[in-house]
Design goal:
The complex is a heterotrimer of chains A (254), B (385) and C (127).
Chain A lengths: L1 H27 L8 E2 L10 E6 L5 H14 L15 E4 H4 L9 H5 L1 E4 L8 H5 L5 E3 L5 E3 L9 H5 L6 E2 L23 E2 L5 H4 L6 H5 L4 E5 L6 H8 L2 E2 L11 E4 L1
Parallel strand pairs in A: 2-11
Antiparallel strand pairs in A: 2-9, 3-4, 5-6, 7-8, 10-11
Chain B lengths: L9 H27 L14 H14 L2 H9 L9 H22 L8 H4 L6 H28 L8 H24 L12 H27 L6 H32 L2 H11 L7 H21 L1 H5 L1 H28 L14 H33 L1
Chain C lengths: L3 H15 L1 H5 L24 H20 L5 E3 L6 E3 L2 H8 L7 H7 L6 H4 L8
Antiparallel strand pairs in C: 1-2
The chains are: A alpha+beta (254), B mainly alpha (385), C mainly alpha (127).
C-alpha cells in the first residue's frame, strides 16, 4: 500500500511535467509565412555611425541647446538627486579625460565638454547583458530594448564611461510635459543615448546634432567623405579611455 | 522525513515565529520597493549595486564551503565528517536560496526575470551564474536528501548518487569562481579587474563558510542536544584558520600592488577602502575592523589549545565572520564603484527599507536552515536512539 | 483508509478552494462582450477583425522586436497589401485614439493589465 501510493504520486508528478513541457515543444515549430516586414525607404544606413564633438564650438549656450533637444525629445526626466538620468550632459575636461590630463593644464582642465554614450565598437555593456536587452545594430549603434531589460544593472557596472542611467522611480513622476513622439520608460529599466536610431531610420540626423550649430558632426566612419572622417583628418582628436580597447565612436576635436 | 519539522518544542516554534515576523516586516518593505522602484534604496547612478548584491556575494562563499567537508569525506575517506556533512549540505541549500532571493530583490523588473531563460546570452557571466547557482542548489538538495534518507534506513547511499557527489566538488568551486568573474571581467573597474579575484573569493569563502558551520554545529549541540562530534569541529577549525590566513595574505598582495605601483586607476579605490577619499572615512574604519578581526582570529586559532576550547573557538569564528562579511558585504561593492568612472566620489549608504529587505532575506535563509536542520538532527537522533 | 478523518476533510477543503472562482461568481451577471467604440472614418484595421481580435497581442510583440531590434519600420498588411508604419502610438492609436473606449474595455473585462502604456504615451482623448 505504502509503496504503491508513493509510486502513484511520483507518476502523477512526471505526467504533470510532461503535460507542461509538451505544448511548449509543439509551439517551438513556428510556421514561416510571407515576408511582412520592410525597411522604410528614407532610412539612413552606415557601417559605423560616429560623432565628432568640435570642442572649440562648444559654448554653454550650444551645449544646453543640445541637451534640451535630446532630453525633451526622449522624455528624459530632470531629477535633482544622484538617482538622476542623463543621456547627454556637461562634464569638464579633467573628469572626462582625467587620464590624459595633468595639474598644469589649468584652462583646458576646467573647460566643459559634452558627454554621452560612446557607442563602442566593442561594447562591454552588450557583452555583460544577460538578456540581450542591450545589443549592437549592424550600423554600429549600441541600442537598448527597454521592453526586455530586467534591471540587473550589470551594464552600468560594465560601462567604463558612466554613460548609463537607471530608472529608480517611474520617470513620469518627474516629467511635466510628455513628447508623444517617443515613449517614456518604466521604473526599473536602464537607459542611455541611442544616437537617435529612431530618427536615422526616418532619414533625420540626431536631435543634438541638429541643435548644435555645427558643434556636433555625425556620419559614417567607413565613408571617407563623411563630415566626421574629414574632421578627423584635419584636426587633432581624443577618445575617452582608449587603453580599454572598447573602441569609442565619439571623438573630441581639440 | 519532513514530518520531523512539524514536531518541536516551544523554543523551536518561538524561533520560527520570530523569523516569520522579520520576514513579514521585510515583505512590507519589498512591496514598497515593487510599487515605487529601487529609488527607495540608497543606490544611485554611480553606485548602482549595493547591499543586496554584496550579501549575495558573501553568501555564495558560505554555500561553496560545503565542499570543504565533501572533499575530505569522499576523496580522503575522512570519516569524522560523515556525522556532520549533512549540516554543510543543508547550509549550502539555505545559502544558495538566499543568494537567489538577493538577486531577485536587486532586479528593477523582477517580473521579467524569465527573460534570462527566454533570451539566453552565454556571453554574459550573469547567465552562467544563474546556471551554476541553480545547479548547486539542485545538487545539494538531491545529495542531502538521498544520503539522509539512506542513513535513516541504515543502508549505504545508492550508487547512482556518487557521480552527483563528485560533481558537486568542482561545482562548488565554480559557483564562487563564476561569481568572482561577474566583477573581475569588467573593463574600467580597476578595483575588481584582477586575476586574483576568484582565488581570493574562494579563500574567504573557505574561512567564512566553515566558521559559520562551526557556530551552527555548536548551536545544534546546545539547542538540539545532538553533538556533531569533536573531531569534525576541530578539523573545520583548522580549515578556517588556514583559509583565513590565505585570505589575509591575498588582501595584503592586492594592497601592495595598488600602493607600490601608485597607478591612480587602482590606487584611488584602495585609498577609499583603507584611508578614505575626500574625507569620507566610514568605510575605511570598517575595513580596519575587518583586518583587525581577521588577524586576531588567526593568531588565536593558530594555537591548538585555543581551538580546542569551544568558547574561544566560537568567539574566533564570530570574528572571522565579521571580518569576511565586512570585506565582501561592505567593502567589495562600494570600493569597486567609488570613485566613479569620472574619478568623482559619490557615496552610497543603504536605506532603512533596504536594510529591512536584507534582514528579511537573511531570516528566510535561517528559516530554511532551521527546518532542514530540524529534519537532519531528528533523523540522526532517531537512528542513534 | 488510514487517517480518513483527516484526509476526507482535507479533500473537501481542497475541492472548495479549487472551485472558488465558480461558486464565488454564482448570482453575478453573466459575461457579456464589451461594447467598443470603433473609429468611424476607417473601414479596415491592419488585418481582418477576427485576426486582430485573436492575435493583436502577439502581433504587437512581433512588431516590437522587428522595429526595435531588427530595424524594420513598415508592415505589409496581409488583408490589403497596404504598408503601415509599425508603431503602437502612431499607427494603432492613430485610429483607436481613445484608450478607455477601446483598449481598456476588453482588457478590463478579461482582467488583463498590459503595461504598454507605462511607457508608450496614449493620445489625449478625442480632439
Amino acid at each position: 500500500m505504502k509503496s504503491s501510493r508513493r509510486k502513484f504520486i511520483r507518476m502523477a508528478g512526471f505526467a504533470a511535467l510532461g503535460w507542461s513541457i509538451c505544448p511548449s515543444l509543439a509551439g517551438a515549430a513556428v510556421e514561416a509565412g510571407p515576408k511582412l516586414y520592410f525597411k522604410g525607404e528614407e532610412q539612413l544606413s552606415a557601417t559605423q555611425w560616429a560623432m565628432a564633438v568640435d570642442t572649440k564650438k562648444l559654448t554653454r549656450q550650444v551645449m544646453n541647446k543640445c541637451i534640451e533637444a535630446c532630453h525633451t525629445l526622449h522624455n528624459v526626466p530632470e531629477i535633482d538627486s544622484n538617482q538622476n538620468i542623463k543621456w547627454l550632459w556637461i562634464e569638464p575636461f579633467r573628469n572626462l579625460f582625467y587620464d590624459q590630463s595633468h595639474p598644469n593644464l589649468t584652462d583646458m582642465a576646467n573647460k566643459p565638454f559634452l558627454a554621452l554614450c560612446n557607442h563602442c565598437e566593442n561594447p562591454p555593456c552588450v557583452r555583460v547583458c544577460p538578456t540581450k536587452a542591450t545589443f549592437k545594430r549592424p550600423d554600429g549603434i549600441v541600442l537598448m530594448d527597454f521592453h526586455r531589460c530586467i534591471g540587473c544593472r550589470f551594464c552600468m557596472a560594465g560601462c567604463p564611461y558612466g554613460s548609463r542611467s537607471f530608472n529608480f522611480f517611474d520617470p513620469r513622476r518627474y516629467l511635466e510635459q510628455l513628447d508623444p513622439e517617443y515613449p517614456t520608460r518604466t521604473k526599473g529599466v536602464v537607459e542611455k543615448c541611442e544616437f537617435c536610431a529612431h530618427r536615422l531610420d526616418k532619414g533625420q540626423m540626431p536631435a543634438c546634432v541638429e541643435a548644435s550649430e555645427g558643434a556636433l558632426l555625425f556620419g559614417d566612419l567607413s565613408d571617407s567623405s563623411s563630415d566626421v572622417r574629414r574632421a578627423l583628418r584635419e584636426r587633432y582628436s581624443l577618445v575617452r579611455k582608449p587603453k580599454l580597447g572598447t573602441g569609442p565612436n565619439v571623438y573630441y576635436l581639440i | 522525513m519532513l514530518e520531523k519539522a512539524i514536531k518541536g518544542n516551544v523554543l523551536y516554534w518561538g524561533w520560527l515565529f520570530f523569523l516569520l515576523a522579520i520576514i513579514g516586516v521585510g515583505a512590507g518593505a519589498y512591496m514598497m520597493q515593487l510599487e515605487q522602484g529601487l529609488g527607495i534604496t540608497g543606490l544611485n547612478r554611480d553606485v548602482s549595486w549595493g547591499f543586496y548584491i554584496a550579501q549575495f556575494t558573501f553568501l555564495v562563499g558560505v554555500a561553496a564551503s560545503a565542499v570543504m567537508m565533501v572533499i575530505p569525506k569522499y576523496l580522503h575517506n575522512f570519516k569524522a565528517f560523515g556525522r556532520m556533512l549533512i549540516l554543510g549540505e543543508f547550509l549550502a541549500i539555505a545559502a544558495v536560496s538566499m543568494c537567489l532571493m538577493f538577486i531577485i530583490a536587486d532586479l528593477g523588473q523582477p517580473q521579467r526575470l524569465m527573460n534570462v531563460l527566454l533570451h539566453p546570452s552565454p556571453n554574459s557571466i550573469l547567465f552562467w551564474d544563474m546556471i551554476v547557482l541553480n545547479g548547486y542548489l539542485f545538487l545539494n538538495l538531491l545529495i542531502g536528501w538521498v544520503t539522509l534518507q539512506s542513513e535513516r534506513k541504515q543502508v549505504a547511499p545508492p550508487k547512482w548518487i556518487m557521480p552527483f557527489i563528485y560533481l558537486s566538488i568542482p561545482w562548488a568551486v565554480s559557483i564562487h569562481t563564476v561569481t568572482a568573474f561577474l566583477y573581475a571581467g569588467l573593463p574600467g573597474r580597476d578595483f575588481w579587474l584582477t586575476a586574483v579575484m576568484a582565488p581570493s573569493f574562494l579563500a574567504s569563502a573557505f574561512a567564512a563558510g566553515p566558521a559559520l558551520l562551526i557556530l551552527l554545529g555548536l548551536a545544534v549541540k546546545v539547542f538540539a542536544k545532538w553533538d556533531p562530534g569533536k573531531e569534525s569541529i576541530q578539523a573545520l577549525a583548522k580549515i578556517v584558520v588556514y583559509a583565513m590566513s590565505v585570505h589575509l595574505f591575498i588582501v595584503a598582495c592586492k594592497v601592495f600592488t595598488a600602493f607600490y605601483s601608485q597607478i591612480p586607476d587602482k590606487l584611488y579605490h584602495y585609498k577609499f577602502l583603507y584611508l578614505g577619499l575626500d574625507g569620507h572615512t566610514t568605510l575605511a574604519t570598517f575595513s580596519w575592523v575587518a583586518i583587525a578581526a581577521g588577524v586576531i582570529a588567526v593568531i588565536i586559532l593558530l594555537n591548538p589549545r585555543n581551538r580546542q576550547a569551544e568558547n574561544v573557538l566560537a568567539f574566533s569564528c564570530i570574528l572571522i565572520l565579521l571580518s569576511t562579511w565586512i570585506d565582501k558585504g561592505l567593502g567589495l561593492i562600494s570600493a569597486g564603484f567609488i570613485p566613479n568612472p569620472m574619478k568623482q566620489v559619490v557615496l552610497y549608504t543603504p536605506t532603512q527599507p533596504e536594510l529591512l529587505i536584507t534582514l528579511a532575506i537573511w531570516a528566510k535563509g535561517f528559516l530554511i536552515l532551521t527546518i532542514l536542520y530540524k529534519v537532519a538532527v531528528g533523523v540522526k537522533k532517531e537512528i542513534e536512539a | 483508509m488510514y487517517h480518513a478523518n483527516k484526509i476526507i476533510p482535507g479533500l473537501v477543503i481542497f475541492g472548495l478552494l479549487m472551485t472558488f472562482p465558480f461558486w464565488f461568481n454564482i448570482g453575478s451577471a453573466a459575461y457579456s462582450t464589451p461594447e467598443l467604440v470603433l473609429p468611424e472614418d476607417h473601414e479596415f484595421c491592419v488585418e481582418s477583425v477576427e485576426y486582430m481580435r485573436a492575435e493583436h497581442m502577439s502581433m504587437l510583440n512581433e512588431w516590437r522586436d522587428a522595429y526595435v531590434r531588427d530595424g524594420y519600420g513598415e508592415y505589409q498588411s496581409m488583408l490589403t497589401g497596404q504598408m503601415y508604419p509599425m508603431s503602437l502610438t502612431k499607427t494603432c492609436m492613430n485610429c483607436h485614439n481613445n484608450k478607455e473606449e477601446f483598449c481598456d474595455r476588453c482588457h478590463a473585462s478579461v482582467s488583463v493589465d498590459p503595461y504598454c502604456w507605462d511607457c508608450h504615451i496614449e493620445p489625449q482623448g478625442v480632439e
